[in-house]
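Predict fold of Alkylation response protein AidB-like acyl-CoA dehydrogenase; 397 aa.
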Amino acid sequence: MNDHKAPFAGSGLPDCPPEVAELRGSVAEFVRERVIPCEPVLDAGGPDAREALARLQGEAKDAGLWALPLPVELGGQGLPLSRYAHLAEAEGAGDHGPSALGSAPILDVRMLARHGSAAVRDRYLKRITAGELRTCYAMTDPDTPGTDPAMTSTRAHSDSSGRWTLHGRKWFTTGAGEADLVTVMARTDGDAPHSEGLSLLLVPTSAPGFRVVRELPILGAGGQWEIELDGVTVPADHLVGERGQALRIAGERLRLGRVLRCLRWLGQAGRAYELMCERARSRTQASGPLADRQLVQQLVFDSLLAIRTTRPLVYEAVARLEAGQDARVETGLAKVAAARMLQQVTDAAIQVHGAAGLGPDTPLPALFRAGRAARLLDGPDELHISAVARQVLRPAR
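Predicted 3D structure, encoded as tokens:
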């Protein structure tokens, strides 16, 4: 992924306070000038990737761009969601932007700050915010549908001292190969109704019995993992929230997580769009530049239309979440629209590039993989379509 063009900002952005607009420019420049050139090393993983990421994180701290949405008392900068949303697009133009800028653990930090025990908060939160500890979240078991977490088969039981012992497997756990802590959804009450017998437990990956089973490439790209918990024990105070309340906490997490993904997908689509326009302007055939071809113009128009019509849906979901309002319909609409938009725009960009769009010299293959995976991540399109339709079609009260 070797392009060095600025992520597409365009007009059509919601109103952005001047100080946030300036900060957005700084974030976009950091991603463009520092993160994107390092993508081949970061994508490869291993010691070189860890060294490169640590260097970028140090540079982000020096530039005053570190942990922008994380709480001030933990070492972040405390930007509210409505302001951070403008930055999340710019961060998301590069897959590693959130990690390099320290915003990647926002979901874990918020969850643990709200639902973690005092011991967990004191022991881990500042170190997570500082980038010293890496976290991940494990919900889906192999051979059970990820859309129905109530079917979780991973189990945990407590002994007379309150310690928890976990047995089971999880897969498609993002970042588990490098994580220090993993939040695991497990069945803690076998006799309770399926939706009420699940709890969340925070597990150090250094604990005996924790094992990374294998990496699960997504359309050839890494980053997802299968893990095993074979008699892993954790203290009683590593229960996250109340026993049996995993789905309620997971719902909070997923609603924000989906909106953050949508914002980052907008950033990635903007990157693909800029590459497409540059290619159309610069590529010349015997009959003239590609930009003069009506079919290429159609691809450019349709892509811009997709970006511009998706962005307001995403920011409407942001506004409702920040206001504490029911955002289920808005989040569902935004998630489906953004996933489709990213796949559409990257596919168009590949088409304009021709064979070059399939090769290693542009980020387009990786962006296209992201677009295809987006239609399954955090629930497939079909789940959100059905959920939104049921909500809309409920009889008026």
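The longest helix spans residues 246-282.
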